Amino acid sequence: MAEQVQAISTGDSRQRAAEVQRGTARAAVLGVSDGLVTNVAMILGISAAEASPAFVRLAGFASLAAGAFSMAVGEYVSMRAQVELLERLLLEEADKLRRQPDAVRAELEAFIERAGVSRKTAHEAARQLCRDKKHVLATYARAIGLNPDELGSPWAAALSSLVTFAFGALVPLVPWFFRSGFTAQIASLGLAVVASLAIGALLARLSGRPLLWPALRQLFIVAIAAAATVGVGRIFRVPVA
Prior knowledge:
The protein has one domain (about 25-235). The chain is about 80% helix and about 0% strand. The protein has helices at about 1-20, 25-50, 55-100, 100-115, 120-130, 135-145, 155-170, 180-205, 210-235. Helix 2 (about 25-50) packs antiparallel against helix 3 (about 55-100). The model is unreliable at about 1-10 (pLDDT under 50).
């Protein structure tokens, strides 16, 4: 039973690590946080300039769509570039393996030895690994900090950014379908506060840290952005019917 529990725990850890390296989890966290901050700041700023509820809804949806697709395109381009760069590095290492097998074996031996294995055992392990080109390339890639099985998915990162940004941006917009004016502003701000604390708490839970500081940090970011745009709206006060 203990071995089964340990195996499950190890599998979960590997899955979480893989998600982090693929970039999907990072894109999701960034998306929902950016969507929330962007739209609550924009909505409160426009409503502070005495815009009508209809205009606030239009601007909120425009911001949601523009931000979501912008985030998705940005994530796809950056992840595609990262994957292509890593693939190029792997091709270079495969070429080095063909041209300089002895040098690769020596580097593998040093890599294994640094893990706490005796020199004799490391030498034998490296020799055996070099018998299989697929295994030796994978191990050699990990020795220089690459995981050939987890290069990342540009499409997954893009979709994750699009969906989570849209969700985060929708939160402060919801009250404007039911209320207007100061009541809707307070409701937007309240929902943004709750969502900010939830995002911070989730990040803390995933990283194994205490809940309070990440939650308050996320709330502080939203508060600064909202205060800045409300100030701009109050200064310019351009009523939009």
